[in-house]
Specification:
- By secondary structure, the chain is of the alpha+beta class.
- It contains 3 helices and 4 strands, in the order αββααββ.
- It has a 4-stranded antiparallel beta sheet with strand order 1-2-4-3, covered by helices on one side.
Length: about 110
């Protein structure tokens, strides 16, 4: 994916936080697994966890500043990730089934 040397730290932070969120969800639910899928032709990277899902109402709010599903959360994590992906001229979005999975998809621009 087209990420320059100066952007590597941001990308590492973004990916690390997606893993952390998935691990937190699995720990909270005491079940689940994480799958990372790469679709090179579409320049897509997906993180899927099967711990639980989020409602459609929550999906519509997840990338808003100061919105959090976590007790005591600042609501800046996914908001920041959205800003980073826009800086890369890409996008990030969520799809979920409220009872079975949450999937974050990152799409990167053409090089």
């Amino acid at each position: 994916f087209p990420v320059t040397i100066g952007d590597q730290d941001l990308m590492v932070l973004l990916l690390t936080e997606l893993f952390k969120n998935a691990f937190d969800s699995i720990h909270k639910q005491r079940k689940g697994c994480i799958t990372v899928r790469i679709v090179p032709d579409l320049r897509i990277l997906q993180f899927i966890d099967t711990a639980s899902g989020v409602s459609l109402e929550q999906q519509n709010k997840l990338f808003l500043a100061h919105y959090s599903t976590k007790k005591g959360g600042a609501g800046l994590g996914l908001y920041f990730r959205k800003l980073v992906m826009k800086e890369f001229k890409g996008d990030i979005w969520v799809t979920s089934d409220e009872h079975s999975y949450t999937q974050f998809t990152l799409q990167f621009p053409r090089a």
